[in-house]
From TrEMBL:
Keyword list, A-Z: Hydrolase, Magnesium, Metal-binding
EC number per UniProt: 3.1.3.25
Organism: Pseudooceanicola spongiae
Key word Hydrolase present: yes
GO BP: inositol metabolic process; phosphatidylinositol phosphate biosynthetic process; signal transduction
Positions of Mg(2+) binding: 69, 86, 88-89, 214
Name of the protein in its database record: Inositol-1-monophosphatase
Primary enzyme class: hydrolase
Stored PANTHER family: INOSITOL MONOPHOSPHATASE (PTHR20854), INOSITOL-1-MONOPHOSPHATASE-RELATED (PTHR20854:SF4)
SUPFAM superfamilies: Carbohydrate phosphatase
Amino acid sequence: MPFSANLNIMLKAARKAGRSLVKDFREVENLQVSMKGAGDFVSRADIAAEKILKDELMGARPTYGWLAEEGGEEPGDDPTRRWIVDPLDGTTNFLHGLPHWAVSIALEHKGQIIAGVIYDAAKDEMFLAEKGEGAWMNESRIRASGRIRMIESIYATGLPFAGRADLPETLKDLARLLPACAGVRRWGAASLDMAYVAAGRYDGFWERRLKPWDMAAGIVIVREAGGFIQPLNPEGNIIADGEVICANEPLFDKFSKIIRNT
């Protein structure tokens, strides 16, 4: 299907950054890696990918704002639009040679995510969506799953590491959810977790303490695939709070009640 000019810019940028990352991924043992914090690494490959994305996206739309993991936030001459970018979601997987990581790009307009791209370059799977135009993986339309029974459903989340304070809360979540479902997965890339909900591979996903670039592209992709997505606090804001829960329509209420403990 024909895509908008902005989405085509996003797709081109994601593929170009993805090619750079794949090249470095093949030589992952030789990467120069520095510690950015407990369990949170930044690599030469990560920084190089962000430069590619910024050159491509800001070169095409120089008036837009910019928010990215490594480069921080820069306001644009157009205050209504900004790119929200994660050049390498799943950095720890990448540095351990695990082929599960992604480039994530979202376009925000007046506080709403209107387009998103999540590119799993290792598997050459491009998840994409524009508001009102449906969600796609490469050339195929994707939809959230149609499962209706919790006991047959699979969920994804992130598990706190390195002494993070939200570990007790997450363990309580798992204690409530695991007896009610077919399993929980932790694959280490929130953007791909959300893309997998959109594609029907997972039936739902939740996580706390995320950053805007972890979630932004996934928000529009899940919605356009027919999934339900909310902040964990129903009165909150996904991007501002850094908390999200999403699932297919038939299971969302049951799943969210378990996680929210309501």
